[in-house]
Design goal:
With about 240 residues, the chain is an alpha/beta fold. The chain folds into two domains: about 100 residues, Rossmann fold (3-Layer(aba) Sandwich); about 130 residues, Rossmann fold, CATH 3.40.50. About 30% of the residues lie in helices and about 20% in strands. The protein has a six-stranded mixed β-sheet with strand order 2-1-3-5-6-4, with helices on both faces. β11, α7 and β12 form a beta-alpha-beta unit. The radius of gyration is 18 Å and the shape is globular. The two termini are about 15 Å apart.
Amino acid sequence: MAKYGLVGKNIDYSFSKAFFTKKFENEKSSDSYCNFDIDSIEKLAEVLAQNPELKGLNVTIPYKESVIPYLDKIDREAKNIGAVNTIKIKKNGTLIGYNTDHYGFAKALANFFPMANKTALILGTGGASKAVAYVLEAMCFDYTFVSRDKSDTAITYSELNQEIITKYCLIVNCTPLGTFPNIQLYPPIPYEFLSEKHILFDLIYNPRETEFLKRGFAKGARVINGQKMLEYQAKKSWKIWKS
């Protein structure tokens, strides 16, 4: 029997455990999948020591970047992205980091082509946003990061106006704002300037319809939550673990 799991913080809402548990039940497999809710990435060593049967891990907020120093090797794409969401654990204990978020996002986004133009706002600057940017760059998008704090690579929410919102067709929420149980929260963008030309992509999948998506839909925008992305990236993780 092999064990797999998810490392993150406050992850009771997680899709991964339900997805893989159902997968193993359908296949009549004795493999298992567990949540490892830790309050700091330093606790990863304890998780590994206490679960020697672990063959693979998924990594979620807030550890997709901070986990990297704890790995022995990193896949080229994960290194280029700067974030890891999948770890393969070899028989000798070697930890190899991969990123399947970019694969999941690209597959889910493909269903929304063609677009009015290849322009995008990426809300947030964490590990997930890096995978999104990696995909958009490969697809030749003109994209801009939006953050609470201004930097050389990001504008702030307070800078968003009608001109900017009108310019960017795709808006991707990579923040946790709106995740269960805090479903009343949403990114502070000027929703009044959205139109049917916009696509709102929320990486959140619980709830299925976030306040971010509701507000976009009310203005005529096409909307998509993170469910398909999570399914695609989970299947990709499984292929990596079994390879």
